[in-house]
Design brief:
Layout (H helix, E strand, L loop, with lengths): L2 H17 L14 E6 L18 E6 L5 E5 L10 E5 L1 H9 L4 E7 L3 H11 L6 H20 L6 H22 L8 E8 L10 E7 L5 H7 L14
């Protein structure tokens, strides 16, 4: 048996011992306070980011590039005449539509590999397996304008981390503008930093977008309750 699986199962045994009684109130239903859309990078520990250990509190979605967008066939089923259209991803929309969740948080992170690969695809040629290429193709149209705005004097790492913010902005924008997401749902965009980019502590989340507003001073004025956590690398 793989030692990796053995180690994982040992960890799960400790988890089950600690959490056994914590599922009493959520065995039959869930009413999570928030849905988070995180990058599936192994360095982003989705519940630990929020110091959460309460089952049923956060509905977590993960994919490369913290995307809220998926493509679906429009028009009649099996029609070859209709181009794919973009909709809010079902895993993000489910808790909003079915569990009364009214807070959505898009979580980007510094040094994002998906943003890096998309940046490379937009500025050169990248060869990836079809499944990965599909994910990059979902990001490309949303990041292309941002890549064109980048200053030429930026280092590669600086350019990518600015696009990380830009990607969060575009995902937030898609949720805010979607008719599928009710107006009462609050949508936040944040960046998780473990690379000392924002100058805070490693592992801190920095708020970069609230319901489509990205101006740092505006956000700090409007949200004094978390003004100290509002920061951006790029106000384009």
């Amino acid at each position: 048996m793989s030692q990796t699986l053995v180690d994982l199962l040992e960890g799960n045994a400790e988890h089950a011992s600690e959490f056994e009684s914590r599922f009493d109130d959520v065995q039959d239903s869930q009413r999570p306070e928030a849905v988070t859309v995180c990058c599936s990078d192994s360095r982003v520990l989705q519940d630990h980011v929020w110091n959460n250990d309460e089952p049923g509190r956060i509905f977590t979605c993960g994919n490369i590039g913290n995307r809220v967008v998926q493509r679906t066939d429009s028009g009649e089923a099996n029609s070859d005449d209709e181009a794919p259209s973009e909709v809010v991803s079902g895993d993000v929309l489910y808790p909003i539509a079915h569990t009364e969740t009214d807070t959505a948080v898009v979580v980007g992170h510094t040094g994002c590999g998906a943003v890096t690969a998309t940046y490379d695809a937009l500025t050169g040629e990248v060869s990836e397996p079809p499944g990965i290429e599909h994910c990059l193709d979902l990001l490309k149209p949303h990041l292309e304008a941002g890549a064109e705005l980048l200053s030429e004097d930026l280092s590669r790492a600086e350019a990518i981390n600015r696009l990380v913010e830009y990607n969060v902005d575009r995902q937030v924008e898609f949720l805010v503008e979607s008719e599928e997401v009710p107006d009462h749902v609050d949508v936040y965009g944040v960046v998780y930093d473990f690379q000392d980019v924002y100058g805070g502590r490693r592992g801190e989340v920095h708020v970069v977008n609230v319901d489509g507003e990205t101006g740092v001073e505006m956000l700090r004025d409007e949200h004094p309750e978390f003004a100290s956590r509002v920061d951006r690398l790029w106000e384009y």
